[in-house]
Amino acid sequence: MCRSRRVRAGGALLVALALPAAAPTPAYRWTNVTVGAGGYAPNIVFSPVERGLAYLRTDMGGAYRWDAQAARWLPLQDDNAESSYMGIESIAPDPVDADVVYMAAGMNAGAPAAILRSADRGRHWTVTPVPFAMGGNEPGRGLGERLAIDPRDHDHLWFGSRHDGLWQSRDAGRHWAKVAGFPYAGLGRPARRTAHGGVSFVAIDPRLGARRIWAGIADPGVAPLYRSDDGGAHWRAVAAPGLLAAKGVIDARGVLWVGYGSGIGPSEVKTGALWRYDPDGTGRDVTPPDWRDAGAEGAFFGVAVARSAPGTVAVSTIDRYRAGDSLWLSRDDGAQWDDVGKRSRRDVSATPFLLHEGKGADFGHWISGLAIDPFDAGHIAYTTGATVYATQRVPARGPVDWAPWVRGIEQTAVITLIAPTGGAPVVSGFGDLAGFVHDDLDCSPQPSFIDPYLSNTNMLDYAGRAPNVIVRSGSLYLDRPRDASLARSEDGGRHWTPLRLPPQGEPPARDDLNGEAAITVSADGATMIVAARVPQRTRDGGRSWQAVRGLPPRTRAVADKVDAATFYAVDAAAGRLLVSHDGGASFAPVATQGLPRDLSAAAPRNRESQSALVAVPGAAGELWLQVGTALFHSRDAGRHFVAANGDLAVELFGIGKGAVYAIGSRGGVRGIWRANDAGGAWSRIDDDAHRWGGRYRVIAGDPRRAGRVYVGTDGRGLFYGDPAG
């Protein structure tokens, strides 16, 4: 059971947005809204020199370190302001000094890339930009590990790049040079965003150091495995199957284990194999026979050895859809295999969000990270596309118990959110995970966005005077039947009724099924408007629909949060503000003063864009409008606007109790800002320890709690900020 401080929600609150004079802004305390992991972690790596020390790399949420004393994962890059460095391509704990750890960071081929070094377990980093590109959030991010350290000379590093061959550093990552003698130079940086596997892993013999190095290749048309016995001066291809080398690990005896696949993953990998290589270079196929018997589907991207128990190895599959992914364990060097997945059970009571797809917790998908604790062969962990599982014991027979090992990990992409005037403090819309009602900000939420289930929630709205009425629209990327991408809840998001529009256009088509149609609900919850190609309105819960007059195609309406008869909309193409005073039946232009003639910058960029026009809770006729980086404020239903951003270039904004909040830049400083004077005087409320890669998606103030603000990120989850004083 999740025992934590509960944030209680009251009833509907109708208080006008009173903006007092500017005052010094207090320091803020930032806390994750708990989900419990939630995204793809390509690998987990234990320190070989200290018990209880482990690192986790994610594809867009940075890296984490397990703190055994605190019994939680600690984020290691919250002070990082470079978005690209939140995509971790590889991670390598030093094999000699437990305090030293390295990371290869870079989101994709067109983004900055660097090698990061820490001498204090990730509390602080030295960043060295490098000339080779990375792909921490590209296909192939489950390969590895690309970064390796010579245990006999731990200032000597090797890195297998995606596009530019093999590189080495002899001064602890400060300078890098391409290994001239390596036989594969790579395919070169792509002109377009094309993913290469390149040099997929580097493995150094722990007994000999860099005198013996193995390197895998995950590009087609070349030998998939090379070996050097003279410190990288000369290389020879080693016998291997006709597949790509995905994962390579070496045990304390110098035995190399390689997982092969037909693709670089994490999707569309059809088949694979597992090979074992003796120190003399002799290789043989040790693929589990029952994997072949079940159809030889998927590949082996998880490979781990037990350094405390020579001959013990674990492997896991990826993209084994028909039979389901699994994990095999061998204690005799691959002669016999135990399919652990068949007798596994999972306790997800601490992270019930994992049941969000409406089915039980399965073994997992996108399993590319697998590790055995070097000090305890029974402690095994693996990563999935949504969580990290661990077990403390694998008995010879009987059930194997797994539980999420995720305390402290928040790795989700937040598309949208609302902080209603009643009910739960916040309701979120996530990518991949649908969304949640967060009754308790410190506990993983129960799934409720189920009927219809939509993997991405693109837009949420609530009724200002009846906040239990919530509407949502979203999209589905999973291959499953879908008959609705719109829904309405009358109990604060806990249960939903699917909404369906009549077919539109020629030939008639369901315009509401593509996730593009935003939905809005009136202040009293009685009226809903959908931004379809012919905008539609309903007053009977979606049983019947009527075309809205005067509202351009696919234009999002915004409901006044007090006056149920009033809606607004921005006609960005024509440069007009539209208003409806008849409950959304018809819209007409309003004569507006104070806005620029060109409103094109207020148009949404895509279906996930936040609305540029926001109505203030508890204040009839009060509006805020963002046009490009400028922000405008109206107190008379849009007839007059005044500039409100001052010298702040605004990217995103949200309204709270007595304040307006924004993501923006001023004087070369980008961050989170608050104003208490209608937007004229802004104070920064984040700090240099809370940057999260600058990957902001949405911001909203709390209409019931002064000073509270919610910030949704792209990779580090959902945060709430409160004044620290």
TrEMBL record:
Keyword Ligase in annotation: no
Alphabetical list of InterPro entries matching this protein: WD40/YVTN_repeat-like_dom_sf, Xyloglucanase_GH74
Q: Where does the record place Basic and acidic residues bias? A: 483-494
The record ties this protein, via SUPFAM superfamilies, to:
Oligoxyloglucan reducing end-specific cellobiohydrolase
- Which UniProt keywords are present, listed alphabetically? Carbohydrate metabolism, Glycosidase, Hydrolase, Polysaccharide degradation, Signal
Which range is the signal sequence, renumbered to this chain? 1-23
List every stretch annotated Disordered: 483-513
User: Which family, according to UniProt?
Assistant: Belongs to the glycosyl hydrolase 74 family.
What name does the UniProt record give this protein?
Answer: Cellulase
